[in-house]
Amino acid sequence: MTTKANSVTSKGKTVKKAVQVALDLLDRELDDVEIEIIENDSKGILGLGSKLAVVRVTVKEIIAQSGNASADSPSEAEISKMVRMMDLSGGNSISSILNKEKVINVTTSDLSGKVWVADGQIFCKDALDKYPLLSPGPGIKLYKNDELIETTVIVREEDVLRMDLEDETREPQWELTISDDKMKAVLKVIPGVHIYKRLKEKGPETYIQLEVEEKKIPIMIETDAVMGTLRAAGITYGINYSELALACTTDDGGSFIIATGKIPTRGENGFFQPAQEVEIKKGIKERPDGSIDYREIRQFPSVDRGQVLGTIQPPTKGIPGTNVTNEPVLPPDVYPLHVQEGKGVVLVEDGYKVVATEPGHPDILVRGKTAKISVISKLLIGTDVTIQVGNVRYIGAVEIVGSVQDGMLVEAQGSVLVHENVNMATVTAGSSVIVNNNIISSAITAGSSSLLFAEIHLMLGDLIRQMTQMVAAMQQLSTVSAFKVSSFSRTGLGPLIKILCDGKFKTFSSLAISFINQIKNGQEILDEEWIQFSERLYKGFIMTQTSDFRSIEEVIQVVKKGEELYAVTQEHKEESGCFIKAGFAHYSQLSSSGDISIIGQGVYNSKLHAGGFVEIAGYVRGGEIFAAKGVKVGEVGTKGGTTTKITVPQGQSIRIKTAMEDTVIQIGPIVHKFTVQMSNIHARLDEYGQLVLS
User: Fold this and answer.
1) Quick count: other Cβ atoms within 10 Å of Cβ 650?
2) Residue by residue, what is the 3-state secondary structure of 119-153?
3) Is the pTM of this model over 0.90?
4) Structural contact between residues 414 and 430, judged by C-beta atoms closer than 8 angstroms
5) What is the C-alpha to C-alpha distance for residues 426 and 439, in angstroms, rounded to an integer?
6) For a designed S-S bond to 397, which of 208, 309, 414, 484 qualifies (C-beta 3.0 to 4.6 A apart)?
7) Taking a C-beta distance cutoff of 8 angstroms, is the pair 249, 48 a contact?
């Protein structure tokens, strides 16, 4: 059989060295062979990935056909065939040749009647009893003795076989694009490739079908060409050389961001900086013992008169950036905040600070470059006050569209309006309380501060009277030679005060302690001078063993301070315009520094205390009523005999349409109990202090 040629594929650092290796293996001269360069040597891109040269060296046909082989021993041509079946591309070491021989491991007798493919060549061995068969595979043009073969054919050693296997080259394609804002340069790459085709190795068989195998070698993009395009496009800033190298050597292709600009730092427009939290916050409050108070889940921020709501901050300019063409990129313009004064606020210090002129909830409405800042005196709650809403504490007024439900608290320094009911809850207002429907098993307080001042007013008046009498007693005792008043500067007035309290002023100590406790309970409302005054009382009059008083003059100073504070309580008492108005009260406590008005069915087994007038259109069944300025009710008492008591101070009157038996009224010190039902009663004291019923 005659084959196309004897050839060797070899590698080297250069094409010249690779060819020399092949010549040494073939034992041929340069004129005896044909050379095919499969892959040129390469030094790599940016110093990365250098590659060896690959060549295929084939002995010219006229030389390959010379010589004859003996039948008994392998001829020189057969030995040459075995050499050609070796893959010498990795070198010609003894170990590699031996390993290849072990893979082939055939003898002349093994090859008889068979065909095989080695090193891209087709070989066969004739035999008398069988014929080697060969067929072209898909995509292979096989020629036998220059005749195109499309089916299975018998091959012999003398046949000349050849294939048309054309290598392919797909040049790489790339395109550079710049984003519209010139902040990115993108290299889109479709990789190139050399596709080298050769016959797939086939071991000796009676029949084989030819197959083609491909070797793909990527074609790298020249970085110099890309860099030239970048320079031509004016791209000089933010080039990512690592990404550029990756794009030029990629096997998969894709888009690569090879340059990125520096984004400008945005400035900040002018804005309102609150001095405190202004949004209604939800959260869970922990009690001092570590347990959770689930009713304290919402906080309603509020401010008082004169409080700084916040400041108007000026705009801050941004920092310019740079695009990929090294041009500056300006940040967006910034603008000052224009503030409109809403209700309850005023701008001071050249519009830098916002100050509340009214108590209430701060309302900040920002739209674009304009902010309207107000203080809303009323807090509107559009649902029931439940555990989901949480307790309500607010400086201004509160309006509740629904009801106040079990266990909840509403506390406002302004007025409170409840459109529905108050059920087993507590409502405390600095001003008035209106409950349109019913008050059930609840505590309602209107004018909490006024009530506190009213109670303080009564106690402080009595304290001042007794302290004034104490001072007079001390001054009288100082004239008695048995008392050495000068010694009080060392020991203090404690022993003398104790003598007076144990004698003529037995009620003073208990009254002073009650007053001190009242100040402590109201310390969130009262000014610091009240706290200091109560501490002075405690250290001077209660702690007699270590009394602070060293002279009668010090006691006189305390009395004068008490008189000043007493005048303050009188002002609060006169200014009180608070009231409670409801439809019905059941098993509840109502306390008002002003009037109490029940306009529905009436009151059942409740306690009412008013600093003003009490008027009940319906009935009063059980409980107690006190009104500082008089009482007017429809029907009082029960047929079952449950006691109902109504009390007013001396000088005031009680009007009752119908009084059941066991109803008790008290005007000043005079108490009267009805033993029979009476109607249209006007009870008062005459000029002699006697009770008049008419």
Assistant:
1) 11
2) CCEEEECCCCCCCCEEECCCCCCEEECCEEECCCE
3) no
4) yes
5) 10
6) 414
7) yes
